[in-house]
Amino acid sequence: xxxxxxxxxxxxxxxxxxxxxxxxxxxxxxxxxxxxxxxxxxxxxxxxxxxxxxxxxxxxxxxxxxxxxxxxxxxxxxxxxxxxxxxxxxxxxxxxxxxxxxxxxxxxxxxxxxxxxxxxxxxxxxxxxxxxxxxxxxxxxxxxxxxxxxxxxxxxxxxxxxxxxxxxxxxxxxxxxxxxxxxxxxxxxxxxxxxxxxxxxxxxxxxxxxxxxxxxxxxxxxxxxxxxxxxxxxxxxxxxxxxxxxxxxxxxxxxxxxxxxxxxxxxxxxxxxxxxxxxxxxxx
Length: 284
Prior knowledge:
Blueprint: E1 4-6, H1 28-52, E2 56-63, H2 69-76, E3 85-89, H3 95-98, H4 104-107, E4 116-120, H5 129-132, H6 150-167, E5 170-178, H7 181-193, H8 203-209, H9 212-226, E6 233-237, H10 241-259, H11 268-283
Parallel strand pairs: 2-4, 2-5, 3-4, 5-6
Antiparallel strand pairs: 1-6
Helix pairs in contact: 1-10
C-alpha cells in the first residue's frame, strides 16, 4: 500500500512518492465497491458516535488545486447523517477573521462531541499559501510579532492545539491528497475543455501552478513538523480518484472501529422503565 501515515516517527519526502494506485489496487470496480461498503460502515459507526456523545471526529483535507478534495468529501461522506455532520470550506479570511488569531476561525467551528467535522482546507493554509506568497503582513499581524521563527512557532502552536483538541475527545485525521503535476494539468484542461466543468475553472489554478515546487516544499515541511501519533497525517496517492477514496474511507472506518464507539448501555432500572412504557402503549 502506497498510502503513507506520518505520525512524527519519521520524515516524509514528497518528491518521488508514487501518486498512482499500486498494482494490487488497480481494479477500478473493486475499489469503488470497497468505497460503497465503507460508506455503509461509516453510516453505522456515525450513528454510534452520535449516540455515545463522547468523542468527535475531525477530517482535514489539504491538497493542491484540482486534487479532488470536493469529490472526495462528497463520495466518502455521502452516507453520513447531516444532523451529525458539519462541513466547512475555508477560503480567503474575512476582516473579522483577520482581527483574530489564525486558529480562531477553525477552532470556533470544531465539531461538538458526537459529531463529524469536515474541513475543506483549514488552519494549515496559514503555513502554506501564506508562506508561499509572503502574505504574513497582509494577515494583520503586527511587525513586532513577525520574526525569523514565525513558521517554526506556528508549527509548534498547531501541534499543541491539535494535541489539546485530542485530549478533549476530538479524533483528528489529516489527509494530504498527493496529486502529480501532470495529473493536475490534465484535470485543469478538462475543466477548460468540458462545458459541464467550465464553472470549476479558475485562472488562479494556472497562476498557482507556477509555484508548484514552493508548495511541495511547504507542504512537506508542514506535514513533517505537525505530524504526531495523536493527530497523524496521511499522504494519499490521488491521481486515481477511485483508489484515493478507497484509502481515505478505509482509514476513517478503521479509526472509528478502534475507538470502539457503541450505543449507550441502559441500566436494569432504565430497561424496566422501558418495559413499563411499552405496556402502557400496548394498552391504548
